[in-house]
């Protein structure tokens, strides 16, 4: 049976998405409830897999990661062994923040965060040395206009 969210669950999730470091008392107050019921709801949503993890968002630029590249990949390889190796390579590279398999002319898109263009070239050289790729196009993001992990609840 699927977990069904009610309005209070959605309010709790909205509060957690905004700032999960706040105390249970603060979250409970914000959603019009008390601490114990909010804790129980959070626990149920964790157990159901709706809340996967709590983490900290770091400022990439403040830490020197000033370049974001979107990397478009086309491959002529579609065998299971190639795909396994490619996915393992992506998962092992900390520069890859996101990777998506696409429908259409492009097979994969990666979001790669690095310190600069030279660091991207090192990433690129390592990637193509580990797996055969038909075509790679890298697009440098000039400005991040919007970035959020919050879901529109």
Automatic annotation (TrEMBL):
<dbReference type="InterPro" id="IPR036390">
    <property type="entry name" value="WH_DNA-bd_sf"/>
</dbReference>
<keyword id="KW-0238">DNA-binding</keyword>
<keyword id="KW-0804">Transcription</keyword>
<dbReference type="Pfam" id="PF13404">
    <property type="entry name" value="HTH_AsnC-type"/>
</dbReference>
<dbReference type="GO" id="GO:0005829">
    <property type="term" value="C:cytosol"/>
</dbReference>
<dbReference type="InterPro" id="IPR019885">
    <property type="entry name" value="Tscrpt_reg_HTH_AsnC-type_CS"/>
</dbReference>
<protein>
    <submittedName>
        <fullName>Transcriptional regulator, AsnC family</fullName>
    </submittedName>
</protein>
<dbReference type="GO" id="GO:0006355">
    <property type="term" value="P:regulation of DNA-templated transcription"/>
</dbReference>
<dbReference type="InterPro" id="IPR000485">
    <property type="entry name" value="AsnC-type_HTH_dom"/>
</dbReference>
<dbReference type="InterPro" id="IPR036388">
    <property type="entry name" value="WH-like_DNA-bd_sf"/>
</dbReference>
<feature type="domain" description="HTH asnC-type">
    <location>
        <begin position="5"/>
        <end position="66"/>
    </location>
</feature>
<dbReference type="InterPro" id="IPR019888">
    <property type="entry name" value="Tscrpt_reg_AsnC-like"/>
</dbReference>
<dbReference type="Pfam" id="PF01037">
    <property type="entry name" value="AsnC_trans_reg"/>
</dbReference>
<dbReference type="GO" id="GO:0043565">
    <property type="term" value="F:sequence-specific DNA binding"/>
</dbReference>
<dbReference type="InterPro" id="IPR019887">
    <property type="entry name" value="Tscrpt_reg_AsnC/Lrp_C"/>
</dbReference>
<keyword id="KW-0805">Transcription regulation</keyword>
<dbReference type="GO" id="GO:0043200">
    <property type="term" value="P:response to amino acid"/>
</dbReference>
<dbReference type="InterPro" id="IPR011008">
    <property type="entry name" value="Dimeric_a/b-barrel"/>
</dbReference>
<dbReference type="InterPro" id="IPR011991">
    <property type="entry name" value="ArsR-like_HTH"/>
</dbReference>
């Amino acid at each position: 049976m699927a977990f069904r969210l009610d309005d209070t669950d959605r309010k709790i999730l909205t509060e957690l998405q905004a700032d999960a470091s706040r105390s249970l008392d603060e979250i409970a107050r914000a959603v019009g409830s008390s601490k114990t019921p909010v804790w129980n709801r959070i626990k149920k949503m964790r157990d159901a897999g709706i809340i996967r993890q709590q983490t900290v968002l770091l400022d990439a630029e403040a830490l020197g990661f000033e370049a974001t590249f979107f990397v478009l990949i086309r491959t002529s390889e579609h065998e299971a062994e190639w795909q396994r190796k490619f996915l393992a390579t992506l998962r092992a590279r900390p520069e890859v923040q996101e990777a998506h398999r696409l429908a259409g002319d492009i097979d994969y898109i990666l979001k790669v965060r690095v310190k600069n263009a030279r660091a991207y070239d090192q990433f690129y050289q390592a990637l193509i040395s580990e797996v055969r790729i038909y075509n790679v196009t890298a697009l440098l993001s000039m400005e991040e206009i919007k970035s959020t992990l919050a879901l529109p609840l």
